[in-house]
Write a structure and sequence with these properties.
It is a single chain. This protein has a single domain, classed as Roll (Pnp Oxidase, Chain A). Helix content is about 15%, strand content about 40%. It contains four helices and ten strands; from the N terminus they run E-H-E-E-E-E-H-E-H-H-E-E-E-E. The strands form two sheets. Strands 1, 2, 3, 4, 5, 6, 9 and 10 form an eight-stranded antiparallel sheet that branches. The chain has a two-stranded antiparallel ribbon with strand order 7-8. Strand 7 (about 105-110) and strand 8 form a beta hairpin.
């Protein structure tokens, strides 16, 4: 499968659909050791004059450890025929099983980034800001219901370093 780099400014993506409905994989680490997890919370936008992604990861997730140790990570988006693989990557921990083997996804390693051959789109990101969600700043009290264990997400803002489109999945 061949990826080509495209200008992220020419990307035609509906983040509400691609992230919230179709999901994505957040992956961090290198060829020696990495982890991935499914996410349906996040966003894309512009901050500090940079094209960025917003990703949210709870501290108990194994991928959190990799995001804390590494500056680079990827967001991988897939066609619907990979829904079973994404479901698996969201339900089980990489501490317990080899998610890549079980999901039958094929990792690619490129310039410090880890992503998957089967992805249709990959956003390769470099962390530029992180912060834990602070419940003292919730304006809508109902948001707290997302955190019955008080395990507030850490937000990662990542500058999009490259945007890769899988030519086989265009």
């Amino acid at each position: 499968m061949a990826f080509k780099e495209v200008n992220v400014n020419n990307l035609n993506i509906n983040p509400f659909e691609s992230i919230g409905k179709d999901w994505m994989l957040i992956t961090s680490g290198d060829k020696e050791k990495f982890n991935t997890m499914t996410a349906s919370w996040g966003g894309l936008g512009v901050l500090w004059n940079k094209n960025v992604t917003f990703s949210f990861v709870r501290p108990q997730r194994y991928t959190f450890e990799f995001l804390e140790k590494n500056d680079l990570y990827t967001l991988s988006f897939f066609n619907n025929n990979y829904r079973k693989a994404l479901t698996l990557c969201g339900k089980v921990s990489g501490r317990d099983i080899d998610k890549v083997k079980e999901s039958k996804l094929t990792p690619k390693f490129d310039n410090g980034f880890t992503y998957f051959e089967q992805a249709r789109l990959v956003l390769a990101c470099k962390k530029i800001y992180t912060q834990f969600i602070d419940p003292n700043h919730f304006i809508d009290d109902k948001i707290e219901s997302n955190y019955e264990n008080k395990d507030y997400h850490n937000m990662y803002v990542g500058e999009i370093i490259s945007c890769l489109v899988n030519e086989d999945n265009e």
